[in-house]
Amino acid sequence: MSSYIIGMAVLGCLWLRVQGFRLLLEEDCGVAHRISHRSVDAKLMEHPWMAYLETPKGYHCSGTLVNHWFVLTAAHCVPDDLQITVRLGDYNTGTKLDCVNHRCQEAHQEYDVDMGFRHKSYNADNQTNDIGMLRLGRRVKYSRQIRPICIFVSNRWEPLIEKFTWFTATIWRETAPNATSKVLQTIDIERHHPQKPNNADVCLEIYGRNTTYGQMCAGSKMSHLCRSDSGAPQTRKMWHNGLDRMVQLGIASWAKGKCEDSGILTDLLSYASWIKRVVRQHGPSADMDPHMTEGFDETAEFYNPI
């Protein structure tokens, strides 16, 4: 069994290295100034793609920067009136200047949103197709603390990704009712494979329904999602072009308010064509990579701009 797992890991590294940028939304992605082992508090500049979404009422959701113009999040995190501010490069939301052990990063940047997108088949009742994107009002300039995460724009490697049994969630975690952690947190989330014994009915028992296309069931009593984690990325570290890179594979979609049980994730590989289409049709042409116009699936699900 151990040799099989090692073999799969090596195959994953080779696949990213050989196929390269044609599988990714943006080539210069998923690299942090510091990547370390997981802990309760994330490290400074360890997750430079994290987006803090804020409405006039306060913290709303999390998201991830995927290129110079777009933030990926859950569909239910996209407000109808687009009265939302995207904060990039933040770590401790309670301070203007983030410092750890006398080491500081530059102040965060705030962006208005000029377009919002929800999947056209998003269902608010059962949270199916819970994926959305926000287009920022101005171009993001990358820095050590603001960089995009890697996003697959092809689902051809889905059989390999299906072997993963856990993800790393990055969140501003709920600490009490109506309160979230000011410091960015990380936690490993166990994934429940329906094909494995005792896993098929985990989310069925909690929510009264099974997961459907584009959804994953994940979490346990020891590592779980909270309702305030909406839009947060579920990631894995992979090797590409000589560097460890973070690739986002899921979005926190739905969880119970008590933060005690498994939750539902949106499976990003199921929406690779949707993400690619939104970026291609609504991203400035000057920032468009040539490969974004190649091999596009015109039968993919469309989106509803609001």
Question: SSE layout and pairings?
Answer:
Elements: H1 2-19, E1 50-55, E2 58-65, E3 70-73, E4 85-88, E5 99-100, E6 103-104, E7 109-119, E8 132-136, H2 158-161, E9 166-171, E10 174-176, E11 179-180, E12 185-192, H3 202-207, E13 215-218, E14 233-240, E15 243-254, E16 263-267, H4 272-282, E17 303-305
Antiparallel strand pairs: 1-2, 1-4, 2-3, 3-8, 4-7, 5-6, 7-8, 7-17, 9-12, 9-14, 10-11, 12-13, 13-16, 14-15, 15-16
How would you portray this structure in words?
The protein has 2 domains: 50-150 and 272-303, Trypsin-like serine proteases (Thrombin, subunit H, Beta Barrel), CATH 2.40.10.10; 157-269, Trypsin-like serine proteases (Thrombin, subunit H, Beta Barrel), CATH 2.40.10. 13% of the residues lie in helices and 30% in strands. It is globular, with a radius of gyration of 18 Å. The chain has helices at 2-19, 158-161, 202-207, 272-282, and strands at residues 50-55, 58-65, 70-73, 85-88, 99-100, 103-104, 109-119, 132-136, 166-171, 174-176, 179-180, 185-192, 215-218, 233-240, 243-254, 263-267, 303-305. The protein is of the alpha+beta class. The strands form 4 sheets. Strands 1-2-3-8-7-4 form a 6-stranded antiparallel beta barrel. The chain has a 6-stranded antiparallel beta barrel with strand order 9-12-13-16-15-14. The termini are far apart. It is built from 4 helices and 17 strands. It holds the Pfam family Trypsin.
Q: What structural category arises from helix and sheet content? A: alpha+beta
| Pattern of helices and strands | HEEEEEEEEHEEEEHEEEEHE
- Would you identify the CATH architecture of the largest domain? Beta Barrel
Number of strands: 17
* Quaternary structure: single chain
Largest sheet: 6 strands, antiparallel, barrel
Q: Work out the strand percent.
A: 25-35%
CATH class of the largest domain: Mainly Beta
CATH topology of the largest domain: Thrombin, subunit H
GO molecular function: metal ion binding; serine-type endopeptidase activity
Keywords: Calcium, Disulfide bond, Glycoprotein, Hydrolase, Metal-binding, Signal, Zymogen
Protein name: Peptidase S1 domain-containing protein
InterPro entries: Peptidase_S1_PA (IPR009003), Peptidase_S1_PA_chymotrypsin (IPR043504), Peptidase_S1A (IPR001314), Ser/Thr_Proteases_Immune/Dev (IPR051487), Trypsin_dom (IPR001254), TRYPSIN_HIS (IPR018114)
